[in-house]
Amino acid sequence: MSIVESLRPCAGLRVLVTAGASGIGASIARAFHDAGSQVHVCDIDRAALDRLVVAAPGITGSMADASVATDVDLVFDDVQGTLGGLDVLVNNAGIAGPTGPIEGIDAGEWERTIAVNLNSQYYFARRAVPLLKRSEVPSLIAMGSVAGRLGYAYRTPYASSKWAIVGMTKSLAIELGPQGIRVNAILPGTVEGDRMRGVIAARAAATGVSVDAMREQYLNKISLRRMVTADDVAALALFLCSPAARNLTGQAISVDGNLEYL
User: Any stretches that span the bilayer, and where are they (predicted)?
Assistant: First the structure.
């Protein structure tokens, strides 16, 4: 296989994307679908799920809360029926969590952030690995964040969960490498979109500055002075599942325009 051929994602991959009906997840799902993969997504948002499967015929979906183990079990029942196996798991589910000083963070909000961002990755990985062990081209991608390599004041629950994901990724890469399963984390930076606008607004309120000033602060921390897009993240996911990345595992790769600090 030539280098150029190895850069083309494999058609026919069986791919599961969690929280795949909107945002980064939907961009990843559509990218794999357009590359000729069989794609199944799950999401807690029924309306978003319905929109995706209508807009991209061939993508199948399950409604599920990724932080609930019994919901995850039902997703894998659907995966067996729609895909008949699994080559790629994209563990994408996550929420922004609360913004504020540690003494003001509600315990329930902390627990919800850990449940969605971290526990969901465990629930999906433990069900996916037995299927990946039967794949010829197995890959597990964990969606982290640049907040998984930098401190993030006023966003402690979120940052804590994302640092944990990097530890999980590196541990699973060692554990599963002998079976040929590659495990990598993608660490998006400041991603343009509704969710980031909400994060900026919340941080502006928490620190007493205007939303425009807070947005400018975010941009000034990025060497390229621009946010990344969901499609930038999807492009890296495709690369990590291509033959060109066959010796990449245990990596936490940032897509962030070189975010210098948070």
Answer: none
